[in-house]
# Entry
Amino acid sequence: MADSNTTGPSYYKRGNIQVWDFIRDQGLNFHLGNAIKYICRAGYKDSKVEDLKKAIHYLQNELESQIVSQYPIKGIPEKFPGQEQYESSFTDYAAEFDR
# Structure
């Protein structure tokens, strides 16, 4: 693993490990690495909500990338498999869990 004692912004360090060291150690790609980065810094740098939205954005990009690789000729379908379930998970009910 990379040197966890590397200095850097405190909002990118959790416990004894820098987030980017974890991302490299796990061999995560660009989208997944950025999702982890924004999840870990949520509430420590800027707006927690904005950081979580960015994490979702990168997860969505990864999901779409995986779907395109499954359907290379057609590209991204208008509704990808499981989209209804995915979209329904972002209901007003989710706010109740944040309380």
